[in-house]
Specification:
There is one protein chain. By secondary structure, this protein is α+β, with helices and mostly antiparallel strands. The protein is built from four helices and nine strands; from the N terminus they run βββαβββββααβα. It starts with 8 loop residues before the first strand and ends with a helix. Helices cover 18% and strands 34% of the residues. The strands form two sheets. The protein has a six-stranded antiparallel beta sheet with strand order 1-2-3-9-8-5. Strands 4-6-7 form a three-stranded antiparallel beta sheet. The protein has a single domain, classed as RNA polymerase II/Efflux pump adaptor protein, barrel-sandwich hybrid domain (OB fold (Dihydrolipoamide Acetyltransferase, E2P), Beta Barrel), CATH 2.40.50.
Amino acid sequence: MSHIPADLHYTKEHEWVAEAQSAGSIRMGITDFAQSALGDIVYVQMPKVGETVTADKVCGEVESTKSVSEIFAPVTGVVTAVNESLVNNPELVNSDPYGAGWLAEISLSGEPASLLTAAQYGEITG
């Protein structure tokens, strides 16, 4: 069974969202369910700092020993930081998807819509 922290929000595409240190920003990553389904992650392509991302649109990809999977932006905004540690250590997404394996921080352009609670996400991943 996947770990689903109650204090985060989620997308149907298996990304998680947490409030970032700076007001009006979020931190995102892929869920424990997603990393488990992908298997050993060997490469992460993230959006670039300064890039505008749009909610529910592709903003990167994760490559594993099994497949390549698209990463969807959970919110609309501007990328303010990316996790540079993943360049040399993409396996952090496997070992700590909600911590050291985060992907990007995004400054919100508006209120996030259609994010799921932990309970709602748990119903999807069953």
